Amino acid sequence: MHRINHYAWRHSARFHSTKSANTTIIAKGVSHRAAAALTITSLTAGYLVGTYQSSSSPEEHQQHERVLPNGLPRTCCQENERKSTLSPEQEKELVQQLRKIVGEDHLVIDGSLLNSKTQAYLKGARLGGAPCLCIVTPEHLHHVVSIVKAVVDAGAVIVPQGANTGLTGGSVPRYSTDSRPIVVLSLKKLNSIFPLDDGKRVCCLAGAGLAQLQLFLQQYFPDRETHSTLGSTFLNPTAAAGVALGSGGTQCRKGPAYTERALYLKVTQNKWKENVVEIVNTLDIEGLEDDPNPRSRLVMDSVPYRVDTWSRWIQEGYAQNFRYSTPNARPARDVHYKERLCAHDENDKQQKQASRISRYNADTSGPEFVRSEGKVILLATVHDTFPKPKQTKTLWLSFDQLETALQFRKQVCLNNPNDVPISCEYLDRDSFDIIDRSGRFLGKMIAFLGTSSPIVSRLWNVKLAIEGAGFPFLVDQWLHFINNAVPPLLPSPIQKLGHKWDHHVVVTVGDFDDTDHDDNSEASNTDRNQNSLTRFEQRLQNFLAQHPSKVETYECSPSQVPALTAFRFVAAPAFRTWCVGEGVQGYSVDYALPVSGGLAPPIDQPQPLRRMRYSHFACNVVHEDLAYARDVDLDAAKYAFKHIVEHDCGGRLPAEHGHGTEYKAPPETQRKWQYLDPLNVLNPGVGQTSEHFQYKTE
Ligand SMILES: Cc1cc2nc3c(=O)[nH]c(=O)nc-3n(C[C@H](O)[C@H](O)[C@H](O)COP(=O)(O)OP(=O)(O)OC[C@H]3O[C@@H](n4cnc5c(N)ncnc54)[C@H](O)[C@@H]3O)c2cc1C
């Protein structure tokens, strides 16, 4: 902690007017009990922190000059005036048309202002805040088709949006050199989930979220699990956005969010230069095959309309009959992921494989809609569900050096594809210290309420609303301050290990009985999947015997596991809280290293004050949060770091958070996106591509 003491800084004067703002916003966002509790604690903290900051010196009031991992203040002070290529009458006409399609209740008109109504759509988890023409929140898939046509014909552009938890700015309007008005298409009201094949798969409409899917499976198929667990699962990110980005998360056996089965829209032009909204259907669901007559103008024949009807029937309690996949349906997950993870041996014939990256966002393999980052509009996706393991075990392992941890990964975890652990998460000392210093409150909430609780995501929205109401640092200052009064999140034996060692891995292993996936090698490997836990333990014992005094392990009881999960999940928010609380600046980077690698990329001068490295260890997907003194040029430091990752370490970035507006997409990815959206009317500017019509340079 002493390393940063001389940068420690007290809080700015913004606090004095917080009380009334907090009260109003909270009253809108959460249930009365939660609101009351939060209001009381916020008021108390507001008072305490207000008292605490009163001694700050004039230069200590320069808080707005530093940069935080969410892009503040670069985006908070931009001009809010919106320029437009359309006349006010044309804009009015477009809004009127959209109102006709979706109805008044599904349209937020004044997208030019960042306020408590628009904040959730205009500001992402880290970036955003630019204005738009309006926000549409349709409830029917066939409305989406009409919306897209209307917007494109009017000469405006669309930013598709799911739950808006994206970290890289791809889901929100952005300041642009192009003046075509932006319509935010929020798909989160389209949130039906349908079981397929007796629950072995699910079809999720574009707004269905991972937490919602978790609850759905718990209720109807308690022996099945979802395809994806992200650090943001508690915020209910959508399954569709996972596919649009190539999101990752913690699940080594399941792989990234990936499917080859989807229903989506593409925008092209025909030879008469008319805009065409093409519906593409690779859902492979019986009864939802392509339109019997694709040329038919009847909306009722279209697949989106038929899915809408199916959705309505299910909501009304009819049509409980299961639907089934068509024979020879395409895969609904990344089938060969586990094999890729285990091809890490640099000396064997697969050396080429070892230098491969397990997953990254710019990967252009797979069907065109995968990792398309808003360049097509996904209406629905099909995902495998996974059988729950018969038995699981969670271990906390602390290592003397990263090299020892990497050997553990290779020898014990990734010994063979059948025995790949369920999850395997790495944290270094700075991650441990910072989460413990600033993440206890949020962690306790997640551990207590669970990752799928809607209360946590509502409280998160309250945080965003407070920040949007002109108090960008208030909640983080409060969280940092109150942390000292909250008991540690982790059980005391792990706290001790955390303070003693520099490198930690939390690994969960299980015994499986995978007999139900017919599209890959697992079915024939059933016997080998069984007893994978015993085999893991044998390998671990051998490893411990070979590395005496270099590793310490602690076996967690099932009741301790939620706290461990929460501890890992709050890493990213804890970093921001810590930077705000300590008065320093910071940035975050998401990258993947070759499957055989994993050492920390070297950093040139200036050295960071703190370097949080936490990773999905088996996949080698790393998140780094780096804190710097306030006089450092953060953009230059970030650029230099990205260069080292890519050019010196053979890594790729971003790995799972998507390019958004934060990362430049490589040429092959840009070419793919241009092919998908030749007019550049969907998510223009993503991956730092041209923002202009047909990708003109200006
Ligand atoms: C605390 C925290 C932890 C996180 N942890 C992880 C993690 O462990 N792993 C990880 O991968 N990510 C993580 N994220 C990032 C984020 O949650 C994921 O990227 C998630 O998949 C985004 O889902 P969303 O519904 O919020 O998408 P949004 O943010 O709404 O959109 C993301 C992108 O997808 C596009 N998009 C959304 N819906 C559609 C659609 N229907 N059709 C076409 N394009 C669409 C958008 O245009 C945008 O480009 C984390 C975020 C937070 C805040």
From TrEMBL:
UniProt keywords, alphabetically: FAD, Flavoprotein, Oxidoreductase
Residue segments, region Disordered: 53-73
Superkingdom of the organism of origin: Eukaryota
GO BP annotations, alphabetical order: respiratory electron transport chain; transmembrane transport
SUPFAM superfamilies: FAD-binding/transporter-associated domain-like, FAD-linked oxidases, C-terminal domain
Domain FAD-binding PCMH-type span(s) in chain numbering: 128-257
Keyword Lipid metabolism attributed: no
Cofactor list: FAD
One term of GO molecular function: FAD binding
InterPro entries listed in its UniProt record: FAD-bd_PCMH (IPR016166), FAD-bd_PCMH-like_sf (IPR036318), FAD-bd_PCMH_sub1 (IPR016167), FAD-bd_PCMH_sub2 (IPR016169), FAD-linked_Oxase-like_C (IPR016164), FAD-oxidored/transferase_4 (IPR051264), Lactate_DH_C (IPR015409), Oxid_FAD_bind_N (IPR006094)
Keyword check for Flavoprotein: yes
E.C. code: 1.1.1.28
Pfam families the UniProt entry points to: FAD_binding_4, Lact-deh-memb
Biased composition regions of type Basic and acidic residues, renumbered to the chain: 58-67
Enzyme class, first EC level, given as a word: oxidoreductase
Name of the protein this chain belongs to: D-lactate dehydrogenase
Lineage: Eukaryota, Sar, Stramenopiles, Ochrophyta, Bacillariophyta
